[in-house]
TrEMBL record:
EC number per UniProt: 3.5.1.89
Stored Pfam families: PIG-L, TLD
PROSITE patterns: TLDC
Native source organism of the sequence: Cyclotella cryptica
Record keyword ATP-binding present: no
PANTHER family assigned: N-ACETYLGLUCOSAMINYL-PHOSPHATIDYLINOSITOL DE-N-ACETYLASE (PTHR12993:SF11), N-ACETYLGLUCOSAMINYL-PHOSPHATIDYLINOSITOL DE-N-ACETYLASE-RELATED (PTHR12993)
Family the entry assigns: Belongs to the PIGL family.
The protein's name in its UniProt record: N-acetylglucosaminylphosphatidylinositol deacetylase
Keyword list, A-Z: Membrane, Transmembrane, Transmembrane helix
TM stretches of this protein: 225-254
Length: 548
């Protein structure tokens, strides 16, 4: 940490290790942590975020394992203020628990804010800092700063394929794809991707440059616990033995000769096992030859230090070597450059089985909606049809299962709902928050959500899109009411009763809907001829990144 109590200009990198359980840091990431904490390491500003307290079998285990984590980190060289442990019912330890990617990302963002402000001695101003739109430059009265943030976590394999490890990775990936502003910066020397988030208050603006690295999973258990030593550790031990023999020979028979020429090296050059090696542009290897440190750190987790963990500490490759691979944003998540905005490629809709019905929208209509409604972070992504009335039936339960399942399991939280009426009108809404049961999130949200209606333009290939609520910044509710079995956009003051206050509302069976003026969206009625319309087809589209 910085030595002064005054706010400092950012000069160092910040590392945040995101783990799933207490003991992950000692079992899997110790070579990396140890190298980062060396006096000549990359950085000493290091934080650990553990997403659960390890209370798997009994809730009383949580405080015990939290204290054990603090003790283990102290042995490693990390003080308790730099360690954060989450204790929430929605992030429970267990192989059958599913962690929501957006919630994991939110917890990481909270930790980033705390770590950045702590690392730069801005603790007393913490309540005034907030994340702001990454595309807006700092104002003239704000001092612009930047900090390099390195997030370290599991990869998609999760080291041991534990579901909580995998969900931790998905949460970090969600943050990188959904919360960060990623662009490709081309120059003479490189064609790199830059990702960042922005913290701001009245007088300062800190751009947080994000780099995510993941711990490579060794899937072959024989190599993980046995053969790695022959390929990677044994050569070092052989060279070390030769060095010791050579030094013994020098001591016994030749030291007087060599001592007359003090500039001459008296030993065989043996590479140090501990250290850092850049394997490629995106892969870094950290090595550590301190097995006693690994044993002491794991033994601090006394409640979990059972026989198989003892064997793992002694024989696992992760005790000695970490391979870190940089996680780059998916190409479809990059924000298009300004000069590219008018020349975006056509929307790519992921094809389905030939027996499935055709899409409700033509490619030209998809392009028009993309250009008029979607934020830049979604404009290059392929579209995936999550629900279709003609394909999946008119069941509210089917809609809830498919759309909510898409939101929670795949980490894809933005969706586009499109409706075609019996009069041929195309209307709908874009939701930038997930569809969840309203009783779970009664206050709603979604400042970027909007409603739209599509009309025929001057040309058949250029439909006219009227958009409502995209730029007003108001809080708009996205309603999924399982009791009344309705799906709706809005909920602000409008004409008529409560239901008619929705800008767009679809009833169970999805054969009938209503529309009204809604203050939150600032819309007019989306159809001609009254408040009520009949539906011929409806689709919900998601936007794909990475592996599904």
């Amino acid at each position: 940490m910085a030595g002064s109590d005054e706010p400092t200009d950012v000069q160092r990198d910040l590392w945040i290790l995101v783990t799933a359980h207490p003991d992950d840091e000692s079992m899997f990431f110790l070579p990396t942590l140890r190298n980062l904490l060396l006096p000549n390491g990359n950085n000493q500003c290091l934080h650990i975020l553990c997403l659960c307290n390890g209370a798997y079998e009994r809730s009383s285990d949580g405080p015990i394992r939290t204290k054990e984590l603090y003790d283990a980190c102290k042995i490693i060289g990390i003080n308790s203020p730099s360690v954060t442990v989450i204790n929430e019912d929605s992030l429970k330890d267990g192989p059958n628990e599913v962690w929501d990617g957006s919630l994991v990302a939110a917890k990481i963002m909270d930790c980033i804010k705390e770590a950045v402000l702590s690392c730069t001695n801005r603790d007393d101003k913490r309540t005034r800092w907030k994340y702001v739109d990454n595309t807006i430059p700092p104002s003239a009265k704000q001092k612009a700063q930047s900090i390099n943030l390195n997030i370290l976590t599991f990869d998609l394999g999760g080291v041991s394929h534990h579901p909580n490890h995998v969900d931790t990775f998905k949460g970090v990936r969600y943050l990188l794809h959904e919360k960060a502003y990623s662009t490709r910066v081309s120059n003479v020397d490189s064609n790199a991707i830059h990702s960042h988030m922005t913290l701001s208050n009245d007088t300062e603006n800190i751009q947080i440059k994000i780099r995510v690295t993941t711990l490579k999973t060794i899937s072959n258990p024989l190599y993980k616990y046995f053969f790695w030593a022959f390929y990677e550790l044994l050569p070092y031990l052989v060279l070390l033995s030769l060095q010791l023999i050579w030094q013994l020979i020098l001591f016994l028979v030749g030291r007087r000769i060599w001592s007359r020429n003090p500039t001459r090296d008296e030993s065989i050059m043996v590479p140090h096992f501990s250290g850092q090696t850049n394997i490629s542009e995106t892969t870094t290897r950290y090595r550590m030859m301190e097995p006693t440190l690994a044993w002491r750190a794991m033994s601090a987790h006394q409640s979990q230090f059972v026989w198989y963990r003892r064997l793992s500490v002694m024989f696992s490759r992760y005790t000695f070597i970490n391979d870190l691979v940089e996680l780059l944003p998916d190409e479809s998540c990059l924000f298009p450059k300004e000069e590219e905005d008018q020349n975006l490629p056509s929307v790519v809709a992921i094809q389905e089985e030939e027996s499935d019905p055709k899409f409700l929208l033509a490619t030209e209509q998809m392009n028009a909606l993309r250009d008029s409604i979607l934020p830049p972070s979604l404009q290059l992504r392929p579209w995936k049809r999550v629900y279709s009335l003609s394909r999946d039936g008119d069941s509210f339960i089917a809609f809830q299962r498919l759309v909510c399942g898409w939101n929670s399991k795949n980490g894809q939280h933005s969706t586009l709902l499109v409706v075609r009426t019996t009069h041929g009108e195309v209307i709908g809404g874009y939701a930038d928050i997930p569809f969840v049961e309203t009783v779970k999130h009664p206050s709603g949200g979604g400042a970027g959500s909007c409603l739209f209606k599509m009309e025929q333009g001057m040309s058949e290939n250029e439909p006219k899109i009227s958009v409502y609520g995209k730029s007003n910044g108001a809080c708009k509710r996205i309603v999924l009411d399982a009791t009344r079995r309705i799906i709706a956009f809005g909920g602000g003051a409008g004409e008529g009763g409560e239901d008619n206050g929705f800008g767009l509302c679809l009833e169970d069976g999805f054969l009938r809907g209503t529309t009204a003026r809604c203050e939150a969206f600032g819309n007019e009625k989306l159809v001609n001829g009254g408040d009520v319309f009949e539906v011929t087809d409806m689709e919900v589209w998601g936007f794909v990144f990475g592996q599904l």
